[in-house]
Amino acid sequence: MVTRVIVLAGGSGPLRSELDAAWPGWDEAIEAIIGADAGALLARPLGLRLDLVVGDGDSLGDSGLAELGRSGVAIDRWPTDKDASDTELALVAAAGRGATDVLVLGAFGDRLDHQLANVWILAHPVLAGRTVTLLDGRTRVRLLSASEGSVAGVGARFDLIERAGDLVTLLPFDGPATDVTTHGLRWPLVGATLATGYSRGLSNEVVATSGRPRVELGGGRLLVIETTLLGSGS
Question: Which CATH architecture has domain 138-234?
Answer without folding.
Answer: Sandwich (2.60)
